[in-house]
Amino acid sequence: MKAAVIVFPGSNCDRDCAVGVERSTGAKVEMVWHGDAELPKGLDLIVLPGGFSYGDYLRCGAMASQSPVMKAVVKAANDGVPTLGVCNGFQILCESHLLPGALLRNEKLKYICKPVDLEIVNGNTRFTAAFGERRTARMTIGNGEGNFFGDEDLLDRLEGEGQVVFRYANENPNGSARNIAGIVNAKGNVLGMMPHPDRAFEAELGSADGAVLFKSVLG
Amino acid sequence: MALEIPGPRIGQVAVRDDKNGWIERMRAKVQVFLKPGVLDVQGKAIEGALHGLGFDGVDHVRVGKTIEFDLPGGDPAKAEADVKTMCEKLLANTVIESYRVEVA
What we know:
The complex is a heterodimer. Chain A is 23% helix and 26% strand. Chain A is of the alpha/beta class. Chain A has a single domain (2-218), classed as Rossmann fold. Chain A is globular, with a radius of gyration of 15 Å. Chain B has two helices and four strands, in the order E-E-H-E-H-E. The interface between A and B is medium-sized, with 19 and 12 residues.
């Protein structure tokens, strides 16, 4: 199994993602610089990590969506390669139109960093299959702009089509529409989520639920 | 006969280029705001602070951004069309933002 973690200037969870994927699945992970126009061949997973790509200039993820590597990522994702965007990676997926909707400033304006309980709304995606019958997970969020927004039609469609994968279970930390914490595209191969599986891949980190996600997609 | 003076016309910027002489430049101003239906949390916080200062009547505070730049050419219609394309592709996220373009 082979995965690539894309490194943008200002990414700060790229190492976490690489270590998380490696330790959870044994997959070989290559770091790919944002200026590269091509991805390694034969990828089983592309990860867009968290951080503050390009200093969050203009809008979170906006500049990163225009970087050379994203043309290759968009093409690979459209060809069906599983693609995971965590936190800033989720914002980049939305800005690249690989996922619908957008992420706004948190409702209370504060940057929030804490563990959250998640409801696994759709356990049949390639990212959640290994959770089996489990319908809860615990991971950490760390974001200032994690407030998912979409118009009512989009939200109805996401819910109706099973594209809402994770919801905040007990409290909605950032004002996200319909408590949404993570969504997949219609094809099911692109997942964007604000909680960090890369900060929850072994018990010592407080939760190993992120490892289950990595195993689902690379198992 | 009127004397032709090379240089910028009123309201336009021009730069001197050794090869091509005066090149017309236009100035674009783009304003980007969250759409009316999208909660502007910064605007709400500022509104609360203004109320705290005693400006009780203040309402509908919206925070946006202004992006200004020069671009080549002297045709305002073409410049405006170009800037709108830039807004659609990068300067605004039309899922959540609306924009206003001025070119002079």
